[in-house]
Each structure stands twice: as C-alpha cells, then as structure tokens.
Amino acid sequence: MNPNQTVEDESHPSITAASRRIQCLSLHLTPLPPSQPSPQLNMLTCAKAANKLEVDKVSLSTYMRGKNRDIQEKIIEFFESRPDLQTPVGVSMNEHRELCMRQLVALVREAKIKPFRYVVDDPAKYFAITEAIGSIDVSLGIKLGVQFSLWGGSVLNLGTEKHRDKYFDGIDNLDYPGCFAMTELHHGSNVQGLQTTATFDPVTDEFIIDTPNDGAIKWWIGNASVHGKFATVFAKLILPTHDSKKVSDMGVHAFIIPIRDLNTLQTLPGIEIHDCGHKVGLNGVDNGALRFRSVRIPRDNLLNRFGDVSQDGKYTSSLPTINKRFAAMLGELVGGRVGLAYASVGFLKISVTIAVRYSLLRQQFGPPEQPEVSILDYQSQQHKLMPMLASSYAFHFATQYLVQKYSEMKKMHDEQLVADVHALSAGLKAYVTSYTAKSLSTCREACGGHGYAAVNRFGSLRNDHDIFQTFEGDNTVLMQQVAADLLKQYKDKFQGGTLSVTWNYLRESMNTYLSQPNPIIARWESADHLRDPKFQLDAFRYRTSRLLQSVAARLRKHSKTLGTFGAWNRCLNHLLLLAESHTESVILAKFIEAVHKYILNSNIFRLPCAYFLSF
Q1: Does 153 show up as a binding residue in the annotation?
Q2: Where is the signal peptide, in residue numbers (predicted)?
C-alpha cells in the first residue's frame, strides 16, 4: 500500500468499498508515521506526577506474596518462554481442551512443578501455584484444580493408606487423570439428595453403581468428556439387610470408579459419557456427563475414611450418624471452596491492574487551552476504581488468613476448627466471588471501547469467572450457612457455650456494642476519629451485632406460626444481610491487622483502607 495514500483518497475509483475498509483497518493496526512531530500524539505527563507516591515495591511484593513468590515467578517465566503453550485469542473449544492438557503435562513433567504434593502438606504453596496458573489461563487453573484438589484431594482426604499407596503417583504425574463426580442433573447444592446408588453385593464382594433415572446423571463433571480415566463418584451406599425393608441406606459415600481404559482410553462397559458442550466460559475444561448402568467395582474402591463395609456386608464407622459422617466428608472437601475464594482475588487483581494502568495513560478533555488530562484524575473514575483496588488488598489478606486457618485444620483435625473454616470459607467464597463478578464489568466499562477488545482480557475474565458464583456452593446458599452458624454462636453465648475462633468478637460485641448507642451517631465526627481503624471496625461489628440480635428475634416470632422452615424463608433477606455484614467485618479486621503488621504510621495503605469502607 502506498504510504502517502489515505482512506479519503478518491483518485483511485477502482478501490472498492471492501478495499477501503481493509485499508482503513490496516491503518488502525499500523498507523502512518506523522509527517512532523505533533504534541497531541506525544505521551502527556500524568497530572499527579509531581505528587507520585514512592512505594518500596520489592518489600511490598515480598510481604504480600511471602515465601511462595519464587515458585510463582518460576511458573510465569516457564510459560512466557513457551509460545506454543500460550492460549491464543479465539481458540476453538476442542483446541483449547487439548492445549490445556498439554499445558498441564508440561507444567508437571517439563517444569517439574508438582502441585499434588502440596495439597495436604503445604496448602499455602498449592494455592500460590494455582494463582499463578490462573493468570496464564483460567481454564488451565480449573483443570489443575479438578485433577489435584478435587479428584486427588478426594483420594487423600476421604480414602485411607491403601488408596494413597495405589493412586498417589499416578495422580501426581498425570498418568491417572481423574474427575470429581458429585453434581447431578437434578441435585447440586443439596448433596444429601443425590440419587446415584452404590449397592453392595456380598456374593461377589463388589459395589454395583447405578444411575436410577435421568435426574441422577452426573453433570458438569470436569475432565470427564475427554481426558479422565477415573472418577470419584458420590453415591448413596445401599446395604442388604435381613429385615422387611431388605436394604438400608447408609447415606452418601465416595467411590473410585475407572471410566476409561488406561491404554486405549475407550469408555469402559456400563459407562456412558456425554459432552456438556460449549459453555459461557472455561471452554478449555472438558466438562461431561456420566451415567452408570450396573457398573461393578471392588469393595476396596470405597473411600472408607469415615465409613467402611466388611466382606459380609457389615457397616462400621467412628461417627454415629449419617449427618455426622456427611458433615465430616464435606469438611474434608472444603479446600475447593478455599481455592475459589483465593483464585477470585486473582481475577480482581488482574482486572483492576489493567483498568488502573489504562486510566493513567488514557487522556480525555481538560481545562480550556490546556493539554488533556488522565481519566484517572476524574473523581468519577477514581470512585469506580479505587474501592476495587482497596478491596483487592483487603481480600488478599482475608483469603491469606483463610488459607492459614485451612492449613491449621489439615494438621490438627480439630472438630471446632473444621466448623470454623467451613463457615469462614463459605462467607469469603460467596462475598469475594460476587464482588469480583461485578467488578469485572465495572473495569471493562472504565476502559471504554478499548476494554471491549478481546485481547484486553475483560471478556474472557468475566466469562471464565462467572461460574465461580455457583460451583463449590451457590453463593446464596453459602451465605445462609454463614447466617446459620452465627445464630448457633448467638445461641451458644446465651447458653454458656464456647464461641469458635472466628466469631469470638461476638461475645464482646453482644456484651458491649448492644448496650451502647450507635457508634456512628453517638460519637464525635472529626476526620481523625472517622479515619481511625478501631472506630471503623467497631462500626462494622456494631452493625453485625444489631442485625444478629434483630433477626434472632424475628425468627423466634415467626417460627411460632410458620414453623422453622417458613420463618427462615420469611427472614431470608435479613439473614443474607447479616452474613454479608459479618463477612465484611472479618475482611476489614484482617486488612487492618495486615496493614499494622507491615508498617506503622505509613501512607502506603491509607488510601485503600479508607476506600474499602465505600463498598
């Protein structure tokens, strides 16, 4: 193309409309150099450059990323050095699936990074690996989680030594790609309502796995459609009895079921595998559906940590009831929820970084006869982005605390700590993923039309993250679990019970805050006082305590006429507000604690702390 020719040039009538369009697009991609320097094309200095805040980036990065910084950098450097493993824009679903498997194999076998070894022994390191992997390709991060945290984690956490000995190496080196088959077409959040059955046959010493109806088909199972060779399948354990009922339902248990031939990858007899097809996002993950028709597996394939069956069909367990066994099983699987909360913060960090950097460089309008100004200098843009920037720090420290408590739980196996982590992970997973989902759209809008370009990642980030609000527990259901736990703690307080670690402030709050006037309206309003972190935390906790007291009173009132379920439903929005308020209090407390730990009387975190309050 002639560099002196422009799209307005009409001296060539042979140029068709299509040619002119192509020419125009080429000029967008490769602009013509200006014939003479133009001040409007030069990068203008940010209006606030004179007041630039100097931050010790190395010190801050070391503090935030801690001892796992090196392995994260190793992962990023490995994938940056391998263009063949980078995910192109617009990749097809089938190509993306195969690419994700190649990426995972390269990570384990070429980069020599084996996440499975850290799932139980060093969860903080495992989650740091998943955060770095998620920044490469979110589908890869989810596929890694399915393999090591869900399939592998179920073997480690629900099985016994014989299962670890048999499967650990194959899971670790990817010889045994696997699935986590819990969700069914008709049952997701209500795991106790699962309909798949595992009936013990004492004659052959086997379990017979059956899908009794279409609603019991295992659905949305990651790794199932293409790559999985095994599946941990959750099913009702049915034992034969000698009474009039003939059988006894022992509740939901987990079973290891081979689904494909290890060598040929052909589907095994009695198993049907279907592809769930193209999704809104995460199309590098091969989600599938599984149906079982009288599939027989050895008795040893029962993951028997919390319940076992002898050869003669006798059931034994250290836990006395179905509900206690079910709670213990789910407690061991909470790592997936912890990982999602942690990973969601990574999405927020990426999107806010892109939006803030763009806003610093993008210049629009300004005072008359003066250069245009950075759009980040506009108050409206600051109000969009600064709360999200602050929240990314707050969520980082809150989820770090969650990982710390989860690591302690894995070492101590304390019953109260398990319950504490269960409730804390439910609140943070629900709150953080909901906030991030909204923020991804806001960041895209803050970047105007350029934010709509696929290469800028907002579209893929938003689509890939959207399901985070649903899997590992629907957010509304999880927030109800938080509210229920708070009410239990409230009841224990007045009956002399022991409050768990995370909720300890409720004892003080119910003794102190509720006997005092509202701290917002009853105390002085000087700037120093309003900026005081202790006052801010007191205000958040006062709100939670008032909500807790008021919803407890409403539940008591309505339960007399509506029953327990009806009263809960009547107060549901109030309960969700309580859970959200409590979760915000925990996040703020951990943020303040981390700031004070890092440096006292410093301006580094003052802006984020103040903006965190403007949720």
Answers
A1: no
A2: none
